[in-house]
Amino acid sequence: MKKLITAFKILAVFSVLALNSCRDENSEMPAQEAIQAKVSTADLQKETTAISSIVPETVQTQLNESQKNLEKYLKGELQLTGTRVIGKISTQKGIELSKNLVADKDQFIAFGNIMDPSTVKIGKIGNLYTEDDLTTAQKGLAETITEEIKPGTNVMEVSWNGKNGAFTTLCFYNDSGIIWDNIFGGLVMMDTRGATQTSDEGQAAKVASKWYKEWWTAKWLWGSKRGEIGYQITIYYTGSSVSNADVSDWGNISLGKAKSESKILRRTGAYGQCQYALGLCTPTGSLSFNSSNFSVSFSGLGSNIVSNGTKSLYP
Questions:
Q1: What is the pTM of this model?
Q2: Residues 192-206: what's their mean pLDDT?
Q3: Which residues form the signal peptide (predicted)?
Q4: Three-class SS state of 77
């Protein structure tokens, strides 16, 4: 009887050991899969064909001008230290790898207006964004790559040096210039005061008109225009009496989101008046329009301009 009990004990021990062994193997599988799923620049390079190590003149000019503007406004807090051409993306798999790399939470990104250094944030995506903001940012980056990067696009690695040390980003380009990079695409240059223009005075027509325009412009780091939001109100008047008024609005941005809405509040009388709601942002944020209070709001994290208000125009 003792031998039988001992045999059962030994069998039970082996069963527990076998069960734990299975659990250990199962627990290791996700970790192994995660390691296998983690892609690198070396994986992307396998999906490219070799090209010249010298980038097109337009791209080099953009790199040079960007570095000048970063030095001018950020005073050495972010420096472009070098580039390394990877190749020309030749397969759809290369596009998928690019999307995964650019949106990976361990990749670096930046956002803010370099003309206002207090707004600039630089770091790993997973450190700058959390929860819903992280989801929005990764989705926006993935959509940008899906829409803009196609087989035949060139890719290089850009080296940076910031306050927290050195890091690299992937930069996609063609003969016309830079298409996307998490630093070049995330940062903008913009004057938050906006620009204004008023029509010339002195019209001799029976019913005269007058207009006022205000707009805000976002630029790429190298200085060329990237996006704009604005509105224009026009009044029609005789003497000091306004007989009609209208308003127009616009909003656009390259690789980002823009919204613009406007309406007339006062069409006749001593003056004309309009209300406007405008916004633009980079892909890692979102814009929404609230019709009840007629305003555009920004959510998430990213470079953005939002302007809501009214404008009165007198004859």
A1: 0.81
A2: 78
A3: 1-18
A4: coil
CB atoms near residue 29 (< 10 Å): 10
**Could you tell me if 198 and 207 are in contact, meaning their C-beta atoms sit under 8 angstroms apart?**
no
Average pLDDT of 237-245?
95
Buried b (16+ CB within 10 A) or exposed e, 136-145: bbbebbbebb
- Write out the two tokens for 59: 């791209």
Report the SS3 class of residue 183.
coil
Taking Cα atoms as reference points, which of 306, 308, 110 lies closest to residue 192? 306
Q: Where are the domains of the chain?
A: 41-185, 195-313
User: Predicted confidence band at 23 (pLDDT cuts at 50, 70, 90)?
Assistant: very low
Q: What string of DSSP letters covers 11-47?
A: HHHHHHHHHHHHHHHHHHHHHHHHHHH---HHHHHTT
Token digits for 254?
């390259």
Q: Per DSSP, what are the bridge partners of residue 83?
A: 158
Q: Mapping DSSP to helix (H, G, I), strand (E, B) and coil, where does residue 135 land?
A: helix
CA separation for the pair 169, 182 (Å, rounded): 7
Give one word for 87, left, alpha or beta, with left for phi > 0 and alpha for psi -120 to 50: left
Sign of CA pseudo-dihedral 68, 71, 76, 77: negative
Whole-angstrom distance, CA of residue 153 vs CA of residue 174: 6
